[in-house]
Design brief:
The protein is built from nine helices and five strands, in the order H-H-H-H-H-H-H-E-E-E-H-E-E-H. The protein has 201 residues and is an alpha+beta fold.
Length: 201
């Protein structure tokens, strides 16, 4: 399946946010990339602003266009605030949860761990990054993968307590989704209402 593999800094500069993690380049060049990046003062249309917000969410969570559209459709069918439900669905993806638990330092690294069968859900190996977790599901590291340097180093520098909807057992290398995250608990700087407005046109 197609996946964005281009320059991460270029995308971060487009949105003026470190959506792939801390970026030194972004601190030095806090304007859009390209020859005319410094001089872009043209007022953006309402549609352009909404589209940018959707693109930011897609790049942040590593989701493709069709996947994102399917998630929005699923969110819109549920009762509640569509934008918040959309973010909850994105947060409940397996690759994102592996990242939130600190098993991997980035979502890209989390995706690789899932694809390479290092992650188990409720005791079974799952190698589908988009696998949707439910409240009560356990996510852990496969027994023979617990000594992987990437995992041990990531866990050593991570504090899962900042995500109230997740629990982590550091002795067993197992996390649990105890609830769905509330909007004010999700740290991503995404204006989901703009995405809802875009899809509502």
């Amino acid at each position: 399946m197609a996946r964005y593999r281009g320059p991460k800094t270029k995308i971060a500069r487009r949105f003026n946010e470190p959506i792939f993690g801390p970026s030194k380049s972004l601190q030095k060049k806090n304007y859009p990339p390209g020859q005319h990046g410094r001089n872009r003062r043209r007022k953006q249309s309402e549609y352009a602003i909404q589209l940018m917000e959707k693109q930011k969410a897609k790049y942040t969570y590593g989701v493709l266009e069709k996947q994102f559209a399917n998630l929005f459709e699923k969110a819109s069918r549920r009762s509640g605030i569509t934008g918040e439900i959309l973010l909850q669905l994105l947060e409940a993806r397996l690759d994102n949860t592996v990242f939130r638990l600190g098993i991997a330092p980035t979502r890209r690294a989390a995706r690789q761990l899932v694809l390479h069968k290092h992650i188990v859900v409720n005791g079974d190996i799952v190698n589908v990054p988009s696998f949707h977790l439910k409240v009560g599901d356990n996510v852990g590291v496969r027994e023979r993968s617990k000594s992987l340097e990437l995992i041990t180093e990531s866990l050593a520098s991570h504090n899962v307590a900042k995500y109230p909807w997740l629990e982590w057992d550091k002795s067993e290398y197992v996390g649990k989704m105890v609830s769905l995250p509330q909007r004010d608990e999700i740290p991503e700087n995404i204006n989901e209402q703009l995405i809802v407005e875009l899809y509502s046109k």
